[in-house]
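task queued by scheduler; priority normal; single chain, no ligands, no partner chains; default sampling; output format set to structure tokens
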Amino acid sequence: MAVKRVANVRWTGDLVKGSGLVTGATSGAFRDQPVSWASRSGDANGKTSPEELIAAAHASCFAMAFSAQLAKNGTPGTSLDVRATVTFDKVGDGFAITSSELEVNGTVAGIDDAKFQELADAAKSGCPVSQALKNNVRIELVAKLASA
């Protein structure tokens, strides 16, 4: 069964001086979060950006995929702390999202670092957000296993 999620943005003004408000319409988990070109291309100043929202999506998707990999291996994680850093940069005459760097620090009992790395890499490749980004955005992963 397909699941759809909806977000809405109301934008006013031009690109440089304009601004918008983004709302998670499906969940209502976030409402009227300010977004602007200035906050996207410079200091955030308390406003979000498409790249921050992609980073949130990638981090949470990876955490779920990695959690599933660990459970399937019989070594469910005690905790996974995931950070995604999405880079937005000038490319040629325009702008592009050029990379998403995933960092995970995991506490997992009964697993060695080699298996942890293998499962982290499988999660990176299998995560649906990674799938959506691949072939367009460089995806990197740093996985660190803490002793449980």
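post-processing summary
- The longest helix spans residues 50-72.
- The chain has a mean pLDDT of 96.
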